[in-house]
Design goal:
With about 400 residues, this protein is an alpha/beta fold. It has 15 helices and 15 strands.
Length: about 400
């Protein structure tokens, strides 16, 4: 009897010890919410949000370059997909890249899983486009955050959620004078200024040179957000460079050629037993110090059923002979479905076919073409074309607009 009681007591003791000695894994810290830098020095961070419409990126980059200023660009995945060459140009000029979600939704209305998906999709497309990461900086669409958002964002590796203390509200289409005054009259040490790259922010390209001129006269220096907050950039291991997700039509040779490495290096870095077998969705480590995919070739195109070299050349505004030469084709009449073709020439871009799907939107008070383009993940130009709106951006309350998707 006593022996049985001792055995029962021993079992309960072991259960008690196991239960109370278990330590759950520590969660990642919530993302730090920042509106300005904590400094008395005259420094300011100019930041630009890029949505699906990056119309003013070239003008903004030209002004920043002329003044030797580095800024922080908060990128959406949809924008990166819409104008990849412009995003490559931002990265090539040494500006800081940060995450602004993929489809620009209100994060306070998403689940943690949905938030992480938005961040992950954007990180992937930006990294594949530029070779650079968006971490550790995030800006919430519409500036909408709460404790749940900061927790999910922090768990995804974005240590800082960047807001602003000066809002130019340039997306409303206000004048360059108004935008300049909003910045210059409200500037304080450590300011973070919010501007946009889209067509809706029509006054920004004209305001930017004057903003820079007047702030310099006040003794201000221009820094990136990471420099303002003294966040050290994370350096990837020298022997891993980056990763690449295999897509339909890829071969080890095409991937090696894209990243300026050898097939044997790819085989060795990924411990591949057969160099001829890779699968769609497979993650490959790109070895060594990686040179991002060349921007001089513009883009690549995957051949589809019914394509001819002539139709592809016409679509990208290049010649058949240029396609033949660039891709070393022995027979200009023979291309195969799934084949990857390099499109020659800088900034080659296809003429996009008209959207096949659309939704209807009844204009409400406060709506602008730019705000609608952000809401629906399209561009101002597409909305104007679909609704035959002229050179002005005038819409009226109650108007029914066709929104192409």
């Amino acid at each position: 009897m006593w022996i049985k009681l001792l055995k029962v007591a021993a079992v309960f003791f072991l259960l008690f010890v196991t239960l109370f000695s278990f330590t759950p894994p520590a969660d990642a810290a919530s993302s730090q919410y920042v509106t300005k830098g904590n400094t008395s020095s005259k420094v300011v961070a100019l930041t630009f949000d890029d949505g699906a419409d990056g119309t003013n990126i070239p003008k903004i980059l030209n002004t920043l370059s002329a003044n030797n200023i580095k800024s922080t660009f908060f990128l959406t995945g949809s924008g990166t997909n819409d104008h990849p060459q412009a995003i490559r140009n931002i990265a090539a000029q040494g500006h800081e890249l940060a995450n602004h979600s993929y489809t620009h939704p209100d994060f306070t209305k998403l689940t943690a899983t949905q938030m992480k998906s938005e961040l992950s999709r954007t990180e992937t497309i930006v990294k594949n486009t530029t070779g650079k990461s968006t971490k550790p900086l995030f800006r919430a669409p519409f500036g909408s955050t709460n404790s749940s958002v900061l927790k999910a964002v922090g768990d995804a590796g974005y240590t800082h959620t960047i807001h602003w203390n000066i809002d130019t509200v340039d997306w409303k289409g206000n004048s360059k004078t108004d935008i300049t005054n909003r910045v210059v009259k409200n500037i304080v040490p450590g300011s973070i200024v919010l501007m946009h790259t889209g067509a809706g922010a029509s006054g920004t390209p004209g305001a930017l040179p004057e903003i820079i001129k007047q702030l310099k006269a006040k003794g201000y220096k221009f820094v990136t957000v990471s420099e303002l907050l003294k966040i050290k950039a994370s350096t990837p291991p020298a022997d891993t460079g980056t990763t690449y997700t295999v897509k339909a039509g890829d071969t080890l040779y095409s991937i090696a050629n894209r990243y300026k490495v050898s097939v044997s290096q790819l085989v060795s870095a990924n411990k591949l037993s057969n160099a001829g077998i890779i699968r769609v969705g497979q993650k490959l480590v790109i070895p060594g110090k990686v040179t991002p995919p060349s921007t001089g070739t513009g883009t690549t195109y995957t051949v589809k059923a019914g394509d001819t070299l002539y139709s592809i050349a016409n679509r990208y505004n290049v010649s058949v002979s240029q396609l033949v030469s660039t891709n070393k084709l022995s027979n200009s009449n023979v291309i195969r479905i799934g084949q990857k073709l390099v499109i020659p020439g800088k900034d080659a871009a296809p003429v996009k076919p008209a959207p096949t799907t659309s939704v209807k939107h009844i204009v409400k008070s406060g709506d602008t073409l730019y705000s609608l383009s952000r809401k629906y993940g399209t561009t101002v130009t597409k909305i104007k074309t679909a609704n035959k709106i002229g050179s002005s951006n005038v819409i009226h309350v109650g108007q029914v607009l066709t929104i192409p998707r």
